[in-house]
Amino acid sequence: MRLPNGYTLPATIAVILHIAAILAVVNIWQKEHQPPVKANPDHIKAKLIALKPATNKPAVAKQPPAQKPRPQPDKDKLAEQKAQEEAAKRKAEAEKQKRIQQEKARKAQQAKLKKQKEEQARKVREAKLKQEKLKKQKEEQARKEKLRQEKLKKQREEKARRDREAKLKREREEKLRKQREAAKKAQEAELAALLAEEEEAEENARIAATQAEKVSAIVGVITQTVQNYWSRPPTARRGMQVILQIQMVPTGEVINVTVTQSSGDSTFDRAAVRAVEKAERFPEVRQVNSVTFERDFRSMRLVFNPEDLAG
């Protein structure tokens, strides 16, 4: 195995061992001539040896300064020192490998964390994109729904407008129809009223004529009845007449009789009043209706001029 600086491993190890042997001799001598000092742990020495950087120049053993002659080191101690150096070297190598593995683990952990972060960032981006996509979809749906609602609103408004116009048209037509119908009915009613009035007038005229004839006949009967009950006074003369007011009830019964216009002869007047009182009742009056009775017989005016006095 060749090192990066071009020296082979055996040469490097030989140089290191040579330096270590010199340092060991110096150390032993110092221990013999100085008070005991706590030795450094073997692993610290191993680290110093292992971490000593190599140079591009050939290693040259540093000559120690001239020292006073000292006793030769013990072979057992040298062997023990060598064993310690070997152990330190192995320990340094093991720690080196451990550091390498730790570095690999650290880098692997960093790579894992980086990958996790990247994965998390990717998921965050994807979630964000998904949310943005969902948001756009919702916005698009909201826009379409708004357009749909606006369209429905316009349709409803248009329908409402048409319905209003149709309703107004129907109302106008219905109003005109009712007006025409009312005018027609009014015309028909007016015509019917005219016809009814004519018929009523005719009927009233007929009834009036009939009643007039009947009244005239009843008045004639009453006059004749009064004449039948009249006794001629000695003072009666031709052409004399008296006007009497006779009050009756619907049955024809006389309830009162008075003179409204005298004949000029009180005896003649009293004779006429006594003739009515003797008659007492005129049953023919019951033949007329209430209207005719009230008009002609409730309070009847009778002109009394006996036939035998007529001039």
UniProtKB/TrEMBL annotation:
Keywords: Membrane, Transmembrane, Transmembrane helix. The keyword Transmembrane helix applies. Pfam families: TonB_2. GO terms for molecular function: toxin transmembrane transporter activity. It is found in: Membrane. Residues 214-306 form the TonB C-terminal domain. It comes from the Bacteria. Residues 71-106, 116-180 have a biased composition (Basic and acidic residues). InterPro entries: Tol-Pal_TolA (IPR014161), TonB/TolA_C (IPR006260), TonB_C (IPR037682). The chain crosses the membrane at residues 7-29. This is Cell envelope integrity protein TolA. It comes from Spartinivicinus marinus.
